[in-house]
Design brief:
The chain is an alpha/beta fold. The chain folds into three domains: about 5-40 and about 220-295 and about 405-460, 3-Layer(bba) Sandwich (FAD/NAD(P)-binding domain), CATH 3.50.50.60; about 45-65 and about 75-85 and about 295-400, Polyamine Oxidase, Chain A, domain 2, CATH 3.90.660.20; about 115-210, protoporphyrinogen ix oxidase, domain 3 (Orthogonal Bundle), CATH 1.10.3110.10. The chain has 17 helices and 19 strands. It has helices at about 15-25, 65-75, 105-110, 115-120, 140-145, 150-165, 170-175, 175-185, 190-195, 195-205, 220-225, 275-280, 285-290, 335, 365-380, 410-420, 435-460; strands spanning about 5-10, 30-35, 45-50, 50-55, 60, 80, 90-95, 95-100, 210-215, 235, 245, 250-255, 260-270, 295-305, 315-320, 330, 345-355, 390-400, 425. Strands 1, 2, 10, 11, 12, 13 and 19 form a seven-stranded mixed beta sheet that branches. It has a seven-stranded mixed beta sheet with strand order 8-7-15-16-17-14-18, sandwiched between helices. It is globular and about 70 Å long.
Amino acid sequence: MDRSVDVVVIGAGITGLTTAFLLLEKGLSVLLIEKSDRIGGQLCTVSDEGFLFESGPNTGVVSNIEVVELFRKLSTDCTLEIARKESKVRLIWKKGKFHSLPGSLGEAVRTPLFTSYDKIRVLFEPFRKKGNDSLESIASMTRRRLGQSYLDYAVDPFISGIYAGDPDNLVTRFAMPKLYQLEENYGSFVRGAIKRHPILAQEKKQGISKEVFSVKGGFKNLVTALRNKITDDQMILSAGKIAVYPSGDGWTTEIPSTGEQIFSRQVISTVPAYALPLIFSFIDFEWMEPIASLRYAPVVQIGVGLKDASLVPQAFGGLIPSKEKEQLLGILFNSSCYADRAPEGGASLSFFAGGIKCAELLQLTDAELKELVVDALHRMLGYPAGTLPDKMHIFRHEWAIPQYGADSELRLKCITYLQKIYPGLILAGSIRDGIGLADRIKQATLIAQEVGDFMTKEGNETK
Ligand SMILES: Cc1cc2nc3c(=O)[nH]c(=O)nc-3n(C[C@H](O)[C@H](O)[C@H](O)COP(=O)(O)OP(=O)(O)OC[C@H]3O[C@@H](n4cnc5c(N)ncnc54)[C@H](O)[C@@H]3O)c2cc1C
């Protein structure tokens, strides 16, 4: 062996970087291995003459203590930026106009988004029978508890915004576990929300504000802050087609680009599902296929800079329900929520297209995507016809967001089984435990804790 470390972490996205940082903090020796020549994975910020654009995520949610603690630990190197209060305004496109999602009872009664029938029906949600299908889709659960118009004009666009997915194919238990738990534990969304109120108040005191966040200067600064905690010899970039297999009481990782063989007691993978078979070729097809076949929604994100922000809404963004048959999934008004995203008087926006329902839009040319943007600037935001973006950056993601469908049950079973029969192997990343940034940080923290505890216990027993 050329080198021996406690833990090899594969993939330097937010999950891998956070895992490596927290393991190093616990005093373990770590090697972080990345295929690409850059770190950050889906996190990537582009600056262009005062405009800031994200290629991947634009925001996270402070939804757990692990996010709060990570930013506390990195506070000298990067600053958590909570979105302005305008971010609480969410717009939904209906019949040629954006409407605010209701934020009060009065607005809920008046909104044109939902039918009068469903508005009355929703009053009886707390008394509706609990579902009994653990693989029920988000669409079916919403129809059953709230009604079709809530599915069409609240849940469908919300699911487009998070998963770029289809609520008929995403399973609530896997894709929206908190919503599933509300019905499971309290019998109703409304009753659950009321009963959980004291818990949420308690969480708020710990800093779990549930607010939307970014990082001052963009997510690249979070990546840099984590990078600063890892030394050059603890990381290999441009690693090539690595291969991992069990050897002795640990693991061997072969790195073609350096010709090295690394021995480690633990191997933690954070790579996407489709990359797993090549890395772990010793795993039987029968067990690997249900994991590797995880479906991803393709997404194209178009960063748009405007020198004149006057018509950009003071809101988080506008989502477009599938029922409206538009090509765009939605628009985020980033400079309305965060400082320094555009030069004085200007705006930085993100337009999204594609998703699981319109995957073919990823094939549009740059000129065709520009046409889409120009049309939306006029029709949706009210800019004069033909207004051109002052800046435009197109980011195509063929494998953007994993879709937690009914196949998740078997995928999770296979992951659990493989981790059991191959001690020291951890298959993580967004193949399980959630696709949001907060989910990724939480998973990394829990894994680092578990591995740290195990290695310390083992070390003590050896002594
Ligand atoms: C367009 C878009 C918008 C999004 N918007 C949001 C949002 O607003 N809010 C939110 O919370 N989340 C959002 N997400 C999701 C979020 O970005 C991801 O869940 C998160 O960044 C995934 O991090 P990760 O480290 O698990 O995976 P990744 O970032 O995919 O990192 C995996 C790493 O593994 C590396 N790798 C792959 N194969 C190999 C190999 N063979 N050997 C070594 N390394 C390998 C990759 O190069 C990559 O660096 C968005 C995602 C996209 C694409």
